[in-house]
Amino acid sequence: MSELYLGLMSGTSLDAVDAVAVDLGQAEPRLLAALSHPLPAGLRAEILALSHGVANDAVDRLGQLDHNLGICFAEAVTELCRRAGLEPDQIRAIGSHGQTLRHRPQPPAPFSLQIGDPNLIAERTGITTVADFRRRDLAAGGQGAPLVPAFHAAVFRSQEEQRVVLNIGGMANITCLPADPEPPVTGFDTGPGNVLIDIWIQEQRGQPFDRDGAWAASGRVDEALLERMLEEDFFAQPPPKSTGRELFNRAWLQRQLAQRRLAAEDVQATLTALTATSIAQAIERWARGTARILLCGGGARNNELIRQLRDLLPACSIESTGRHGLEPEWVEAVAFAWLAKQTLEGRPGNLPSVTGAGHPVVLGAIYPGQSVCPSS
Q1: Are residues 97 and 153 in the same domain?
Q2: Cβ of 124: how many Cβ atoms within 10 Å?
Q3: Strand-strand pairing, 129-131 and 91-96
Q4: Per the structure, how many domains does the chain have?
Q5: For 248-276, how does the pLDDT look when each residue is reduced to its tens digit (9 = 90+)?
Q6: How distant is the alpha carbon of residue 263 from its chain centre?
C-alpha cells in the first residue's frame, strides 16, 4: 500500500532546496519525483550574513528570513507536486529539515536553530508538515546531529559486509553500519565537506562549485598547509561530534592562509585534500574493517575528491548510493521524509549511539495541513 511523503532539505552548501516525493509504504523507499528548487540570490546572501553573525537588526532579520524561507519551501513543494501530478490529499506529510543558522551543541547551553517557518509550509500547501527535528535530541543530551544515520541503517545496512555511508555535503559525515546486527550503528561529522572548497572557488573564480574537482586537480597540495589545517581540535575529538559553518567558514580559512603565498589552484587542491584526508582518518580510526563506502551528497560528484579517497582507502570499495537504489543527491531529502513518517507513527528518529542522547526520542513538531475548525 502506498504511503506518500515529501522531504525538503536545504543544506550547508546553500545551493538549492532539494524536494522529493517518496513512497514509504514498502520495505524500501521508492523515489517518485525530485527537484532542486533554486534559492534566490538575495535570500542566500541574507542567510550567509545572519549565519556569520554580521547582520544588523538580527532579530528582525531572523523573523523575516524565517518567513521568506518558509514561502520558498512551500513553493518547492507546490512545484514538485505539479511536476509529479500529486494532489495535497494524497500526501501524508512533509518532512522539512529547514535551514540551519546556528548549530552549537556544546554545553553549557546547547542549541541548534533551523528556520523556514513550517506553519507557512503547512498553510500554503495544505499538507501536514513535520519540522524542528534536532532540538528534542539536544534536550535528551545529544548533539542533535547527525540524524540521517537512522535512515541509513534502515536502508543500506547489510549482514554480508561492514559498510560506511559517507555523505559529503557542506560538511561531511559518516554512518558506520556493522554487518553484525548486534553492535550499534555509529556516526558523526568528520569535518568540512564541500564548504571550504566552495568558498574558495566562489571567492577566486566566481563559480558556485568546483565541477568534477577539475580546478583542484590542476593544483598541487601544500603538505605544510594541510598538516596545519589538520591540527584543528575538532578532528582529534572522539564521537559523538558534529560541526558546521560556526567553525569551518571563511574566517577559519583566512586564518589558515595567513602569511602564506600560494597559487589559488594549490589552495583548492589542499582544501580538497583536507576533506579527503579528514574523512579517511575518521574511517580508519572509528570504522576499521569497512569493506564498502556508499557515497551521497553533492561531493559524490567531485571526481578529484573521490580519486583521493580511493588512494587513501585502498582496501575499501567506494561507490554511489545510486547502485543501491537512491541517487546520491536525494538521500538526505528522502531521509527527512522518512523521519516525518517516524514522527507521525510515534517512533524514535534518533540513534543515541550516534548523537550521544540519553535515550531514543520521537523527533520534531507536527503542523497540521488543513485548518481544523472547532466543533460547535
Answers
A1: no
A2: 16
A3: parallel
A4: 2
A5: 999 999 999 998 899 999 999 999 999 99
A6: 31
